[in-house]
């Protein structure tokens, strides 16, 4: 059903905008910041957005066409949003391309690291990557424990998305678990 609409420009654009909006909403869930330690800063919000987009793209790679086209359109929409955000923050026209290049490198580097950890079901590697990238705690003594809740959330989100098909992702949006449910994942009893 979606494939028929996906061939039309306006319908295609609306589907991508809706998917992008739903991912944005998930990346701004208050519990990510209050319960899982994502910093409520420009950088923290960028990291949360990247994380959720990466999880959706990860699922789309496993789906048949036109999922690859949807994935590319989603990436384009995300980077257009980031470009606009940089301009709103006052970055000049000459500085935007340089910053976008850095953001792109950061995005794809994170995607590679998160995918490798999730593919290997290596929670230690996932915690380390999340502590470094999202929580900004590279080398911190308690980084592993503090990243455990976020890592458990990411793993559960990846598993939840495994059951999604392209129609479901586009019609109802990606289903992410409630971040608050992972608040105490790193606490030893």
From TrEMBL:
InterPro entries: Ubiq_cyt_c_chap, Ubiqinol_cyt_c_chaperone_CPB3, Ubq_cyt-c_CBP3-rel. It comes from the Bacteria. Residues 35-176 form the Ubiquinol-cytochrome c chaperone domain. Pfam families: Ubiq_cyt_C_chap (PF03981). Belongs to the UPF0174 family. This is Ubiquinol-cytochrome c chaperone domain-containing protein.
């Amino acid at each position: 059903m979606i494939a028929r609409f996906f061939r039309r420009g306006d319908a295609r654009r609306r589907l991508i905008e809706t998917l992008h909006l739903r991912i944005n909403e998930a990346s701004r869930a208050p519990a990510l910041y209050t319960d899982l330690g994502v910093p409520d800063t420009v950088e923290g919000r960028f990291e949360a957005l990247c994380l959720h987009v990466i999880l959706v793209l990860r699922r789309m790679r496993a789906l048949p066409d036109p999922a690859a086209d949807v994935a590319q359109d989603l990436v384009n929409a995300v980077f257009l949003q980031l470009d606009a955000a940089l301009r709103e923050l006052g970055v000049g026209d000459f500085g935007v391309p340089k910053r976008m290049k850095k953001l792109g490198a950061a995005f794809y580097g994170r995607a590679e690291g998160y995918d490798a950890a999730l593919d290997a079901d290596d929670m230690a590697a996932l915690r380390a990557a999340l502590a470094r990238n999202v929580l900004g705690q590279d080398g911190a003594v308690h980084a592993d424990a503090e990243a455990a809740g976020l890592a458990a959330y990411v793993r559960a989100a990846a598993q939840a998305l495994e059951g999604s098909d392209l129609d479901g992702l586009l019609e109802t949006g990606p289903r992410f678990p409630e971040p608050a449910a992972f608040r105490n994942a790193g606490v030893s009893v």
